[in-house]
Specification:
This protein has 249 residues and is an alpha/beta fold. It has helices at residues 41-48, 71-75, 93-98, 113-119, 135-148, 165-178, 189-195, 213-216, 219-226, and strands spanning 2-12, 15-26, 30-34, 56-61, 64-65, 78-81, 153-157, 181-185, 198-203, 206-211, 228-234, 241-247. It has nine helices and twelve strands. The strands form three sheets. Strands 6-7-8-3-9-10 form a six-stranded mixed sheet, sandwiched between helices. Strands 2-1-4-5 form a four-stranded antiparallel sheet, with helices on one face. The chain has a two-stranded antiparallel ribbon with strand order 11-12. It is globular and about 50 Å long. The mean pLDDT is 94. The structure holds adenosine-5'-triphosphate. One of its GO terms (molecular function) is ATP binding.
Length: 249
Amino acid sequence: MCIELHQLTLNQGHRTVVQPTDLHLHRGEKIGLIGPNGSGKTTLLKAIAGLHSPASGRISLDCHCLSGLAPQDLAQQMAILLQDQPTDLPLSVHDTIELAAMARPDGRAGPSVAELLAIAHLTPLAHTPVSRLSGGERQRVFLAQALFQAPQILLLDEPSNHLDVRHQWQLLQHCHDTIETVIASYHDFNLAAALCDRLILLVDGVIQADGPPQQVLTPANLKRHFGVDSERLSNDDDAPHIRVLGAVA
Ligand SMILES: Nc1ncnc2c1ncn2[C@@H]1O[C@H](COP(=O)(O)OP(=O)(O)OP(=O)(O)O)[C@@H](O)[C@H]1O
């Protein structure tokens, strides 16, 4: 499986927010999308999920043009966790997770609702309406729902939102360990470096860097594109640890 972007251009209203982009995303990769606010990460993730139509260019999945795939066929391959989840769902935690059964291909092995409730530490809340949960608890429900879909490709838009530090590391590590291909946007450089083998730095809709974390998370890139001074606390080739010293004066 391979996702290919061919001269993909994405608009929001009349404004182009992702400039013509070519990109190959391969089976098995754990990809982190990083970039300042408004750089186009959400728009790009939604386009890959078939939720945002290209202004021009195209996206293909295993050589099939995404726009030609039926929504249910797409849902059988990928799940997406969006930033804005409904807060007023009249469903219980258990039933919200189970909703994803509709998108899970018949016969595909995957975790049970009970297993996911345990993994996300939601078992005591199984029968609580989602509308009565805290922001972090709700985020765990929708992560569990995406995992229940048992997708080959998992798209996550700022999945660490609202999660306490334990759940950021434990649940996101679980996603990266159990799903074949993960493409996720992150604002936390160290989480992205630890979880991903490839980082794509998007700035004003243009890819400015693409490679292993140690190549992308350089003090020069962080200064130029995020406006912060930083230093590396370790030179671990797999997962550089970044200390942000402050905003550039
Ligand atoms: N519904 C919309 N209508 C008009 N413009 C929009 C809409 N959604 C997003 N935009 C604009 O598109 C640009 C890209 O937004 P996008 O949400 O993709 O960025 P992002 O990198 O995910 O940002 P963040 O890190 O803040 O979540 C921004 O300038 C934003 O203001």
